[in-house]
Each structure stands twice: as structure tokens, then as C-alpha cells.
Amino acid sequence: MKVSTRGDYASRALLSLVLHQADGPTSVRDIVERTGLPQPYLEQILLALKGAGLVRSKRGVGGGYVLARGAAEITLADIVSAVDGPIQAGDFGLPHTDGACEHEGQCVLLAVWWDAGERMREYLTGYSLADMAAMAQGDAPWPDVADRSAG
Predict the structure, then answer these.
(1) What is the pTM of this model?
(2) Rounded to whole angstroms, what are the CA distances from 103 to 83, 99, 109, 113?
(3) What sign has the CA pseudo-torsion 3, 73, 93, 111?
């Protein structure tokens, strides 16, 4: 499974909003300057995040984007789902619960793919924007990627 560029950019943009939320609404230009994200693409992503109820926009002087909910209430799963759709291992459908399958091995593989997607959803739900901000500011430990990549 792979998080899309859209999911990564959306997460980076929202993390920037959290890290600078004390400054009030943040303009697209400020997010671009802080994150290096391409502005036209970021504007599309912010519209999707607004449609999903994760951000609100304020017009006029001093306007920009703010979180629509608290940082502790928005998870990485929420963000990725808002811009990419449901988190899943593939578009295979649910396994048959009665074991009746049309092709050899189909049911067991559908069950494995569904389980893989569920584990990814659970993992991303375990990280909120508040968690990510605490890590970025050095107030919480980062995930230990060194141990996992060595295996």
C-alpha cells in the first residue's frame, strides 16, 4: 500500500496549519513558503479538505485557512481519506462470508486484502495532527523507523 502524493501533501499542509495556528488563519502562500508544496496543487487539496470538513477558509485581509476541528481530533486516516477516498489495499470488494467463491483462492485473498486495508486504517487513525505537531516540535518521540527498515 502506498499513500499518494495528494495524501502526503494534504498531511504536510495541515501539519503546517497546526504548527502555526497561534498566528491565526494561514494563507495558501504562507503554506507554500513553509512546505515547498506547489501552489496550484495545494489549492485543489485544500478545497478537498474543506469539503471534508477538516479546514475552514476565511476571506479578506488576514484571511486564510484554519482547522475546522481540534488537532487532536483529526487523524492521518481522516486526511488521507479526504483526498484519496477510502483507505484500502485494493478495489477487490469484501470477501464472501459463506465461503462460496467463483474462483480458486478468491475468498481467502479478498479477506487478506481487506485485512491489510483495515490495518492501514487503524495505523493511520492512531496518529492525530496533535501527535505529529508534538513530534515535529521535539515534544514526543518519532516512530522508530530504523528498527523496522533493518528487518
Answers:
(1) 0.84
(2) 34, 11, 11, 16
(3) positive
